[in-house]
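Researcher: Structure prediction, please.
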Amino acid sequence: MNENILVIEDEPDIRKNLEYNLGREGFKVSAVGSLNDANQKINNNNFALIILDLMLPDGSGLDLCKQIKNNIQTEAIPVIILTAKDDEVDKLVGFELGADDYVTKPFSVKELILRVKAVLKRRDKKKDLVEVERQFGDLVIDVDSHEVHVDSEQIILTALEFRLLRELVDKRGRVQSRDQLLSEVWGYNSEVTTRTVDTHIKRLREKLGSMGKYVQTIRGVGYKFSRTPD
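Model: Predicted structure follows.
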């Protein structure tokens, strides 16, 4: 496997435990206990995935998550948030910022490793997708720059909204159930309900304006991105 994972966790016992068990699975592991050390590692290494604690001694992991997902050099790195904070609002904020999964302490190391492998598998599957047509009428999606334009005007999407649009576009013409979208876009977490998908679809349509009609609702099933709008 040999992929490089960064663990950002301020509790030494948890940090060493993850370093040991991920290492046993064949991963290369770098482990740090602060945002400052994490930034130095991220700037000087190419990580396949980041496991990120939220409550760190020198700041919030949410700020680092936002920083990673807003930087074109690092936005493709999957982030799994690991924290003792189990408030649903914090989870939704994490996913909104672009986190790929959310694990609450106390946790099973075995389960976390399974989640790591699942996130990496989804990443690899998306890498294998052929970049084909990304223009539909006045809607233009630039995958490389993560920019979306409607009628030549740039539309500002969050990292999660962009991933949602990409998922629908990559499987255009095929209906995606809410559970499928939760799995592929959010990295399915039992604490995130299917209503979250409806909320983000509505917001995405609003931002796309006249081109929101390409995102179609299939009653009783889910959503699809259609080649021909309603």
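Model: The chain has two domains: 4-128, 135-225.
Researcher: Thanks, that helps.
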